[in-house]
Write a structure and sequence with these properties.
By secondary structure, the protein is mainly alpha-helical. The chain is built from ten helices and no strands. Helix 7 packs antiparallel against helix 8 and helix 8 runs antiparallel to helix 9.
């Protein structure tokens, strides 16, 4: 039997589903939501007292949910319900602020409209994970995550470029090179995701592409980590509201890499002819 046949007909690959740990996802994303509320608060004009208070309420709400999440071993019941509702509410808060900015009904402060849309999409992604923690076929899941995260990474770079002082020419130059790279990667990921709708049994190109994504994301993660260290030491000129913002985007790059580390072996096993036929799908 050919290698292609062995891969296509493997019983392990007929319904190869890799389950995310929903509790760990909730712990990660709840911290992200809490920090989103902080960044919104720091970016609001001082006279927008109502919105500042609303942002502070979300900071405290997600802090309380994080404390509850730290004490449990399973995400269920009242905690799951309360978490879903909190995420729905912060999605609407972000959307409300974005609508007002688009309609020129409030002063923007330093909250870019694209930033509000960016963090709104992240919250929607979190809510999707809470509703549907088990992804579909690993190749579908891999490409879906790449399209989501590559857009997030590209926008992180764009925000950094606009927050750095114009005198930080070397850092801006590096960031612009990353923007070019991640713009190309995002376009390719969208193309591959579209092609995958034809449901090919094997798609070796996705494996090669993902390995390239991993290499470039590691470089970007290191760039963010360096920027965070410089900001923490007051060695960078910028209008970044807090060094925590740079650590925040660095952690999201690490999260992207973690997801690729889980999904790539599964996609290689079940949808590739690149020699992974002896590995079981969805290892614990």
């Amino acid at each position: 039997m050919s290698q292609i046949d062995k891969t296509e007909n493997s019983p392990q690959c007929q319904d190869c589903v890799c389950e995310f740990n929903r509790l760990e996802e909730a712990r990660f994303w709840s911290r992200i939501m809490q920090e989103h509320a902080l960044f919104i608060k720091l970016g609001l004009p001082a006279d927008q007292i109502k919105f500042i208070k609303e942002a502070q309420d979300f900071i405290e709400r997600f802090m309380e949910l994080r404390n509850r999440l730290a004490r449990v071993s399973k995400l269920e019941g009242d905690l799951l319900r309360d978490l879903k509702q909190a995420v729905r509410d912060i999605i609407e808060f972000k959307a409300k602020l974005l609508r007002l900015l688009i309609q020129c009904k409030v002063e923007p402060g330093s909250n870019y409209p694209l930033l509000l849309d960016h963090i709104r999409r992240e919250a929607m992604h979190f809510l999707d994970l809470l509703h549907k923690p088990v992804p579909e076929d690993p190749l579908f899941a891999l490409l879906q995550e790449e399209v989501f995260w590559l857009r997030i990474m590209k926008e992180h770079i764009e925000f950094i470029i606009h927050l750095l002082d114009p005198s930080e020419r070397e850092l801006i130059k590096q960031a612009k090179e990353f923007r070019k790279t991640f713009s190309r990667l995002l376009e390719t990921a969208r193309d591959l995701e579209s092609m995958n709708e034809t449901m090919p049994k094997n798609f070796n190109t996705v494996i090669r592409f993902t390995e390239n994504v991993i290499a470039n994301t590691m470089e970007l993660r290191d760039f963010k980590a360096t920027a965070f260290e410089l900001a923490s030491l007051c060695e960078i000129l910028s209008i970044i509201s807090t060094p925590l913002l740079l650590d925040h985007v660095r952690r999201e790059a690490d999260k992207f890499l973690d997801e690729l580390e889980v999904l790539l072996p599964e996609a290689r096993k079940c949808h590739s002819t690149l020699g992974m036929e002896n590995l079981p799908c969805c290892q614990d």
